[in-house]
Amino acid sequence: MIYGDQAVFAIEYKEAERHYISSDGTKVLMGYGKLWMQGYFYGTNEDRLYLEGYFLGEVDDLLTAKPLDYDIDKLSADELFDLLYDSEDYPGYCFSGGTFTDDFLGYRFKRGDQVHIVWRIRTDQKLYFSDLIHYPKAVHYCIVDLAAISKAKAMLVAAYDLR
To answer: At 119, which helix (H) or strand (E)?
Structure first.
């Protein structure tokens, strides 16, 4: 199921058939998902994940992104990615939410009421998931309103009656 607008920001999530039962007997929701930002996805929906852990945590990381105090207006997407990748000053901008995003290198930061996200698929390792094999190798850069991220998250949370 898609929650949100894939052309802006959306969360794709499909519940797994089997779930982990915690020590107190409650069901822990597991499934498959990816994030969509301006028509490109981030993550793979072929690697099972915890909905309330890694997956919603990744969305929360976008909502709580730190501001970036650097003039980026004249940087290309590649230059911005390189700035964040190469700098030891920017570890808090890393955008990685567990195994479903292991094949990506990404960063996020906030400017006003928007989150800037820059990422690329990893090229230093073999890709095993079929949805990633033909993923574009270019650096992707998008700017998403916090309201769009919050709306997509609220739709998913409501669908599963979470927090």
So the answer is: strand 114-121
